[in-house]
Write a structure and sequence with these properties.
Pfam families: GH16_XgeA. One of its GO terms (biological process) is glucan catabolic process. InterPro entries: Beta-glucanase-like, ConA-like_dom_sf, Glycosyl_Hydrlase_16. The longest helix has 7 residues. Strand 15 and strand 16 form a beta hairpin. Strands 1, 4, 5, 8, 15, 16, 17 and 20 form an eight-stranded antiparallel beta sheet that branches. An eight-stranded antiparallel beta sheet has the order 2-7-19-9-10-11-14-13. The protein is mainly β. The chain has a single domain, classed as Jelly Rolls.
């Protein structure tokens, strides 16, 4: 996660169309394989998370926010009782920020953070989302982080992340090793930092900013959401994004072939470090914090007033919710 340093069919989920590690205590920070080299891989579905799976299998984190956000991450029972974590009538999992309670300016508002029951060392990760949290002061992320601490040992991979009223998704990786993003990438997004090594005072990671202004926040939601995919191999991380009306048939049929998807949105081939020793035992995480190390300092660029004062405005968080159709892992 980035630090303050770095500034009808359309709505149907893929599942409808297709027919013992805890990452929660680890800090979320933030501050090229060419198309011709991406060969076809026969992926096998190993984990599919849909509906109640996120409530029954994933782990709820209820400790202080490591990024200094104005949130109380609540337990599963508290989240379900308050309507912050539930499955709707379409089998969509909703993870929300409290938008009804009275909270003092500068106080903490209830929110949800969960992590997957398993950790991974490679694979193809495909998330289908109907909506993501948006709003002033809001900082959502869908990411992977090593269950082996301390951060950033084992690395971190941010698939979806942004703050406030941003409309472009940022993709970032962090490592404790000396890793540099190579310059031969064919990615369609724009590089905003090429140094992946992260440590205190230097934790922005290497990152891309997606060019499309419908990859994050309100425009993403208004377009019916879409699919984000991460292909993690022994040599690179490749990221892909597909709007709702452009999802490849092999994804909806659960027989994905990334070699047929064209150029990646973001392509992390790194030099100066070993992938296997830099990224390992990664759990999948969803969270939504408020203000904190990134959304707080960036707040004045897109939002009125102050970030601490917006916490008191419950209606500001009416759209601060994930609508998760599915997360599927292939290997």
């Amino acid at each position: 996660m980035r630090s303050a340093f770095a500034a009808a069919l359309l709505s149907l989920p893929l599942a409808a169309l297709a027919g013992a590690h805890d990452a929660a205590s680890f800090r979320r920070h933030s501050g090229a394989v060419r198309s011709s080299r991406r060969s076809s891989t026969n992926y096998t579905l190993v984990d599919k998370y849909v509906g109640e799976d996120f409530l029954n299998e994933w782990q709820f984190y209820d400790q202080a926010d490591p990024t200094g956000g104005n949130v109380n991450y609540v337990s599963q029972s508290a989240a379900e009782s308050a309507g912050l974590a539930y499955v709707d009538c379409n089998n969509v999992t909703v993870l929300a920020v409290d938008d009804t309670s009275s909270v003092a300016s500068g106080g903490n508002r209830d929110s949800v953070r969960i992590s997957s029951p398993k950790a991974y060392n490679s694979g193809l990760f495909i998330g289908d989302f109907g909506a993501m949290p948006t709003g002033c002061g809001v900082w959502p992320a869908f990411w992977l982080v090593s269950t082996v601490g301390p951060w950033p040992a084992g690395g971190e991979v941010d698939i979806i992340e942004g703050v406030n009223l941003a409309t472009q998704n940022q993709v970032t990786i962090h490592t404790n090793n000396t890793c540099m993003l190579t310059s031969n990438s064919t990615a369609t997004a724009s590089v905003i930092n090429n140094d992946c090594q992260s440590y205190n005072g230097h934790d922005s990671g290497c990152a891309y900013l997606q060019d499309s202004t419908e990859t994050f926040g309100a425009p993403f939601n208004q377009a019916g959401g879409g699919v984000f995919a991460l292909q993690w191999t022994s040599s690179a991380f490749s990221f892909f994004y597909f709007p709702r009306d452009s999802i490849p048939a092999d994804i909806t049929s659960e027989t994905p072939d990334p070699s047929s998807w064209g150029e990646p949105t973001a392509d992390f081939t790194v030099s100066g470090c070993d992938m296997a020793s830099s990224f390992f035992e990664q759990a999948i995480v969803f969270d939504t914090t408020i203000c904190g190390d990134w959304a707080g300092p960036s707040y004045p660029s897109t939002c009125p007033g102050s970030c601490s004062s917006i916490v008191a405005n419950a209606t500001n968080f009416a759209d601060a919710r994930w609508k998760i159709n599915s997360v599927i892992v292939y290997q």
